Q: What sequence folds into this?
């Protein structure tokens, strides 16, 4: 195991937060996104 | 199992616990191959860069220097800002490599830096005259490259040697250790257990396509991934079903079933096509056929536990686990074909462990996959686990084991690299999976348990002095949850409760449960949470809280055992919440009922079954006292006004012969 000196999990969370801020979407919600209609099975 | 899997020595161990290898290797054979391949690739890049540096003009030399060390060509062309930008992008590329399998991110930034250096060779400089080149950048580029490689090699070697030096001491400990037995007390559900169960039922018994109260956010890696919330809740309800309500599975079976069915919702598994495209260049959205063990292994284990806890075989039916993609394409599975797919992924993996996110094979997820195959074998008499067990163990012990008994959390299946990604403390653990190897490798469980509990009994015994009135008189500090949305003390309490149980301190565990409830309970109900923590951590808390006397490893090993004694066949949810229904002697029934989230003033009816035909029973407790005659079919029905919690006991008064004599 090497040392990367980079906490990927923490940076990832900050990146997600940044993207959410830019796109105006909340980082966490308690309502699922809508499920659009799908075409029938094929 | 064949004897090809490496077995650590046990001969000198008086305790019977496996010892650690005394001459550990730095890398297993497959990891070594992958790392060597990576080193050769880097050497080729260094050679190409050096040729450009030696033979080229200004632009070629700048490009060459950026190949020798990413972005160094920008230093040569006096653009230090672009050098810094290259390294910012490179750092992000490392995170995206791990986070979304962007395997081309690092080489892409590296090559982009080289191309950019050449393009900017004649561009205006901000802090120097146009056309300026900094000759010292050549030496600095090689120095930085050597320093970087040296730091990585040093970090690997220093960690390896530090751990290897511990082996004699650890083996001495392992050979003499007497690890306390895990406590297996039978708990009586309290008010908080009831609140937690009520919340879990309301969350899971809403329509299958509704997710009110779940935490939604990005679905790749963070603490808002919905599939893990479903897994954890399924894992938590399994021990509750077995330990608390084995004789009244009507409501909890439906709750656990819904948790599996919700996994089939497109919003839960849609993430896979994105990852598959980015990481495997494969646009197949089928979430099981390739990689993705974080869905197939985790949920496979969840399905086993559903079947083992409830006895329901509904997911054994063909097509009962069908994913429907955006365009209507269907991927039809059932319990058996699901597991066969997991097994095929194991079999075709070069490393022996197969990836979660493309290119990343986690020891934890592959242990979950092993648990899934093991559990299916137990339930259905198949031999999926036994067919891959030897190779699985070989991978774990040769490729992932470190000298001190820890296992690396993650490995790149393309480069062989592992590092602390920040997901688990130190990026390593002594045991993993949700059963800590207890079912799939009991000997490794014992060793890992001994290592992880080293010094713990002494530390935790100090806490017993802080118990007063059955409760630990302390508060634990709140820590950030994985998604860093809120802080919570619940995960720390959960660890303390699990640790106390692990060393047989059931009194301490109970005192910690009460202290947790006092510190963290919110008094809120669904769709809010009754505890101040996220859905995932709350589910993990319930899992640990309810995992006694049987935990999920025991349930996975045991398979389904039908309940003995009277059973409650049906109870009208949401009018009634059954928090206890078990028979300790096989003839009576301990029953605890509470008003459900939609209480009613009218009497509620409970259908009883598995009574002795024609026998007479008596239901008593909390002001209730009624005769319950069983029909010739062993069934009966009772009617109760449930205006308060009732703790009841149904006991046999007279058998059919005694009743008629």
A:
């Amino acid at each position: 195991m090497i040392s990367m000196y980079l906490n990927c999990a923490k940076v990832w969370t900050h990146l997600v937060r940044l993207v959410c801020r830019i796109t105006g979407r909340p980082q966490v919600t308690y309502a699922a996104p809508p499920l659009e209609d799908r075409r029938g099975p094929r | 199992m064949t004897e090809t899997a490496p077995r650590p020595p046990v001969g000198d161990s008086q305790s019977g616990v496996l010892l650690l290898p005394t001459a550990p290797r730095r890398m297993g054979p497959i990891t070594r191959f992958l790392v060597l391949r990576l080193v050769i690739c880097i050497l080729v890049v260094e050679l190409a860069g050096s040729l450009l540096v030696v033979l080229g003009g200004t632009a070629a030399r700048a490009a060459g220097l950026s190949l020798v060390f990413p972005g160094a060509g920008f230093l040569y062309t006096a653009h230090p800002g672009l050098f810094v930008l290259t390294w910012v992008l490179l750092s992000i590329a490392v995170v995206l490599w791990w986070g979304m399998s962007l395997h081309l991110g690092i080489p892409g930034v590296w090559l982009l830096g080289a191309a950019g250096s050449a393009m900017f060779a004649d561009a205006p400089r901000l802090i120097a005259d146009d056309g300026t080149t900094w000759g010292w950048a050549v030496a600095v580029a090689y120095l930085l490259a050597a320093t970087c490689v040296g730091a990585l090699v040093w970090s690997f070697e220093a960690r390896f040697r530090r751990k290897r030096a511990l082996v004699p001491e650890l083996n001495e400990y392992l050979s003499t250790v007497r690890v306390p037995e895990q406590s297996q007390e039978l708990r009586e559900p309290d008010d908080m257990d009831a609140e937690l169960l009520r919340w879990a039922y309301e969350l899971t018994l809403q329509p299958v396509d509704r997710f009110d109260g779940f935490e939604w956010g990005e679905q790749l890696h963070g603490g808002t991934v919905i599939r893990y919330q479903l897994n954890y809740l399924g894992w938590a309800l399994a021990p509750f079903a077995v330990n608390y309500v084995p004789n009244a599975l009507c409501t909890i079976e439906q709750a656990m079933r819904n948790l599996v069915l919700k996994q089939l919702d497109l919003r839960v598994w849609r993430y896979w096509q994105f990852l598959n495209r980015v990481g495997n260049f494969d646009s197949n959205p089928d979430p099981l056929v390739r990689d993705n063990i974080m869905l197939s292994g985790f949920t496979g284990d969840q399905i086993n536990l559903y079947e083992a806890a409830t006895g329901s075989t509904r997911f054994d039916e063909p097509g009962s686990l069908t994913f429907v993609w955006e365009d209507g394409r269907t991927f039809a599975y059932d319990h058996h074909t699901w597991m066969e797919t997991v097994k095929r992924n194991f079999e075709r993996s070069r490393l022996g462990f197969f990836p979660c996110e493309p290119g990343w094979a986690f020891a934890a997820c592959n242990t979950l996959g092993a648990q899934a195959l093991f559990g299916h074998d137990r339930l259905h008499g198949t031999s999926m686990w036994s067919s891959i067990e030897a190779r699985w163990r070989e991978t774990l012990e040769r490729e992932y084991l470190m000298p001190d008994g820890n296992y690396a959390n993650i490995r790149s299946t393309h480069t062989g690299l592992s590092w602390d990604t920040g997901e688990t403390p130190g990026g390593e653990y002594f045991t993993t999976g949700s059963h800590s190897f207890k079912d799939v490798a009991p000997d490794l469980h014992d060793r890992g348990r001994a290592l992880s509990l080293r010094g713990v009994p002494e530390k935790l015994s100090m806490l017993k002095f802080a118990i007063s009135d059955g409760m630990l008189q302390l508060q634990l500090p709140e820590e950030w949850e994985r998604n860093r949305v809120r802080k919570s003390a619940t995960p720390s309490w959960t660890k303390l409760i699990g640790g106390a149980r692990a060393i047989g301190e059931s009194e301490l565990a109970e005192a910690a449960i009460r202290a947790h409830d006092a510190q963290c309970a919110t008094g809120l109900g669904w769709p809010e949470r009754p505890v101040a923590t996220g859905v995932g951590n709350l589910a993990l808390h319930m899992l640990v809280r309810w995992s006694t006397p049987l935990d999920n490893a025991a349930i996975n090993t045991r398979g389904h055992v039908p309940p003995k004694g009277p059973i409650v066949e049906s109870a009208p949810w949401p009018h009634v919440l059954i928090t206890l229904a078990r028979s300790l002697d096989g003839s009576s029934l301990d029953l605890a009922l509470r008003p459900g989230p939609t209480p009613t003033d009218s009497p509620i009816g409970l259908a009883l079954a598995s009574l002795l035909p024609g026998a007479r029973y008596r239901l008593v407790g909390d002001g209730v006292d009624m005769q319950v005659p069983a029909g010739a079919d062993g069934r009966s029905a009772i009617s109760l006004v449930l205006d308060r919690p009732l703790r009841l006991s149904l006991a046999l008064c007279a058998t059919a012969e005694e009743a008629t004599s």
